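Request: When convenient, would you put together a sequence paired with its structure tokens?
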Amino acid sequence: MGWFSRRGSRKGEGRQARSDGPQMEIDRKAVEAHLRAFVDSKRGVEAYVEPATSVTTTTIVLIAWDGEWTRRAVGSPRDGFDISQKLGVPVYDVNKTGYPNRMREWSKRRRRGDA
């Protein structure tokens, strides 16, 4: 018996199901209040929806014009896009666009203590 013959040859057999991230309770009102406060206090805010991983659920990152950012769990990609629409900010799928350089630059300045 070969190694690969033990794994199963039927479709889906021997494979793990794709994870949509861990199940977690999300206080949607608190999340929306935090994101609204960020949008109201910053200029040029854009939203980036991040996919779920094995350790986090779907999240949304809001990034201001200067690179300052905040991240919150939203539960699903649809929720991320819906919240962004409610906030009135442009929204992007981070898998398709990546993050803007200003986010990395802002984080780098914060680590150095410049921000």
